[in-house]
Amino acid sequence: MQSTAVSFDGASLSLSLITEKVDVPPVGGLIARVTMAGICGTDAHRLVGDVPKEDAPISFGHEAVGVVAELGVGRVTDWHGQNLAVGDRITWFPPAAGCGHCQNCLDDFFLLCEEETWPYPSSRPNPAGFQQYATLSARVPVYKVPNDIPDEAYVAFGCALPTAVNGMDVLGQILPAQTVLVQGCGPVGLASIALATLASPAQLIVIGAPAKRLEWATRLGATTALDITTTTQAERAERVRELTDGRGADVVIEAAGQPAAFTEGIELLARRGRYLISGLFSGSRTVEVNPVLINNRSLHIMGNLGGKRGNLGNAVALASRLQRRFAIADLVTDRFELAEIATAIRSSGIGLSTKTVVVP
Length: 360
Prior knowledge:
Protein name: Zinc-binding dehydrogenase
Keywords: Metal-binding, Oxidoreductase, Zinc
GO molecular function, one term: metal ion binding
Organism: Arthrobacter mobilis
Number of strands: 17
Cofactor: Zn(2+)
């Protein structure tokens, strides 16, 4: 069969539509008809050259939901052991395929694979989401999704949800008496807020913009929302001190994707506080760091690049739970056709929508 796909040329930072022949599915793999793909912040950064460029044109899009079109020889279940058949609804995670044998893959950190790189060249069948049909090898994590949960619920947070799930794993326990502060209210920030809410902290503060995303933050459980467009850094620091009796936040989660957030965030931490970096995936800007502050306050600073593949399945199950509790499918506000991919990515990149998706 023929499939229309998006191809990105890093040399010219240009997008084009190409026609690919979709062959038989690989042994142990499958072919999926893509029904919806989410736009990630990384996609917007890619379009302006903020991420490393590949030598050849690539296919991309890593937040996808679809339907099994054809099963490869030997493929009978998803990664949870549920039986798979043609017509079943699924979601999958293209960047988490990995090589399977480097040390990071053996430790379950497939996103840090040393050999298999994402995204893939558009010259060969691949699992990218910005195309009509995706070819998934046996190594691509695939999960069956229930028919009563809409596609939008699985792309509302997209890759941000497994990122947030892994972030909570990295952070460790959040206690009921603690204050959690989240910087940023894009998908990673909102997903982190939803998960923090499930931990029932004493206070959950969010710093971000625009107003409609702050409204969602409150809907998901934030107890205080500070708009960065109407407050200064000094005013935000004062407000956090007021809310915490001068201590600061016990946990700060960076989900803003801006280096300046790091400088502000560590100043908002209480002594022995924990700081998780979840949003800084790309870019070349740097900030000054005061190591004396980190040492004298005994601060703990952790990075979180997606993390363990085992957390992907947890995120899929959690998306269903969050849909039933918060109706997260409503986060999807803008839908575009595949031919409108450039407009879709740019619209998402400048924050015009809460969540933008492509419907191939």
